[in-house]
Amino acid sequence: MAKPVKLLAPATATTEPVWVRVALTTVALGFLALFILLPLVTVFVEALRRGWEVYFAAIVEPDALAAIYLTLLVAAIAVPLNLVFGVAAAWAITKFEFRGKQFLITLIDLPFSVSPVVAGLVYVLVFGAQGWLGPWLQANDIKVIFALPGLVLATIFVTFPFVARELIPLMQSQGTEEEEAALTLGASGWRTFWAVTLPNIKWGLLYGVILCNARAMGEFGAVSVVSGHIRGQTNTIPLHVEILYNEYQFAAAFAVASILALLALVTLAVKSFIEWRDERAHELASRSAAAEDSEVLRARAAVASVPAKVVPA
Amino acid sequence: MSAVLAWARPRRSVLPGFGPAMGYTLFYLSLIVLIPLAALALKTSTMTWDAFWATVTDPRVLASYRLSFGASLIAALVNLVAGVIVAWVLVRYDFPGKRLVDAFVDLPFALPTAVAGIALTALYAPNGWLGEPLAALGVKVAFTPLGVLIALIFIGLPFVVRTVQPVLEDLDKELEEAAASLGASRWQAFTKVVLPLLLPAILTGFVLALSRAIGEFGSVIFIAGNMPFVSEIAPLIIITKLEQYDYAGATAVATVMLVISFALILVVNLLQKWQQRRA
């Protein structure tokens, strides 16, 4: 791989002049500072504008606590369900060959392309009072829309592809040889999965779960459609932030929002850690492979240098 | 279901579990995604064509499409240029704090949209850090279409960077050396050698950013001001119609958006095929 150039090193045939490098770096960092750093800093500055007391009061207020509890509950249901689906889908897609595989992957990715508002709407059309199952649900006194099940369904929809999409390329690159070896040695299918496949994919799995969880806790558009916005009952954290903001309680809105911003920062930190780990493992693997290669070469050279007469005919 | 399984029967694999894994995948996919989306199509099909057409070509709805597509297109173009520059700087140059900067590129993916929305609004409001100096220059951002554009640039930012970065990392530097040894200037080597190789990745990132921007809701509604005919986006029209119990109207507008999403997915798939042929 090409080595990155130090910004102020002299130009060579395949690097740009110093002024170009400095200019491009300044433009890139300026753009990122304007669109990423400033909004992030704004959240915390606005949250603490009226002091720590107002900040904590906004977070421990009963409606805020109810929103935090509801958000955790929704994520605790939606994320494991998508985790199981992601593993099953990745197993079927990467360990077997079948027709229509690419089409299946496209269908799994579909929720990423659908507007969150449309995602919420489709559940209203199925489960709402005017929907397909509306009359039946009403007759049996089951609430889906404007209640927990609707929030969970909408959240599952928008976070649907995360785990599968992390696992598919990873398991594709790992192939099926290790599992085949385990089966040949007499392991059962489950044991092969737990002892061979799972250790191989655990970091990719964690990565997918982290991204899935961040989106599940932060989703706004889809849950906004199915929530009904009942304070203290069907408001998740993002919806609570919206209500506070629309009531001009800016410090409180940003205080509650800062919890979600912290969650985003933790997500990025874990993601970077996993990437850094991956890179290091990769480097170690290629270094030991190179060392092995040179050992083989040395051994061959040693064999070649042995005089022919010593080798038994 | 069993017919589908038989149809998709795997070829020569000794591994177990295809049936249950595939069966569960199709069951869950149908339950969560396919059947609800079919409900949308079915609801639309109960409308007469005239009623459907009248709803989706209503002047207020048309104005919202124009804003959603126009702003998304401009935002994706801004992200295309900025994304290529950011990816280039992250791959080719070395500067202190590079890892941190690289990690923060994904913030728009991780930060909930509502949080981004209120933060951008506070920033660009007439009394905000950026809004105040801009207002002094006579530029209004918050509560105008310009605000919509700013929010859409924010949420689409990582797409081009993350599609271009891996391709640029794998790019063989010998190609550029060859160009230089044949007398090409650095600019010529970039435009004639590097850029054509990056093009499929750049366009994929562009279409992904565009597709995300068209459907975006949370980060936009706070900063947009939501004035009918001026700063009202298409997803908000759906919400407004739902709040008025106009389910048919909401469904019609949603169907148009869904068709556009499908078209964009198709474009992304074609672009990825193109890229695989290149590789």
Counting DSSP H or I runs of 4 or more residues, the number of helices of chain A is 13
Structural class of chain B: mainly alpha
Please give the number of β-strands of chain B: 1
Shape of chain A: globular
Task: Write down the secondary-structure element order of chain A.
Answer: EHHHHHHHHHHHHH
Overall average residue pLDDT of chain B:
90
Mean pLDDT of chain A: 88
What portion of the residues of chain A fall into strands of 2 or more residues?
Answer: under 5%
Count of individual helical segments of chain B: 14
Please specify the SSE layout and strand pairing.
The complex is a heterodimer of chains A (313) and B (279).
Chain A: E1 5-6, H1 18-47, H2 51-60, H3 62-95, H4 101-113, H5 116-127, H6 134-139, H7 148-159, H8 162-174, H9 177-184, H10 189-218, H11 221-227, H12 237-246, H13 250-305
Helix pairs in contact in A: 1-13, 2-13, 3-7, 3-8, 3-10, 5-7, 5-11, 7-10, 7-11, 8-10, 9-10, 10-13, 12-13
Chain B: H1 2-7, H2 18-45, H3 49-56, H4 59-92, E1 93-94, H5 98-104, H6 107-110, H7 113-124, H8 131-136, H9 145-170, H10 173-181, H11 186-215, H12 218-224, H13 234-243, H14 247-278
Helix pairs in contact in B: 2-14, 4-9, 4-11, 7-9, 7-12, 9-11, 9-12, 10-11, 11-14, 13-14
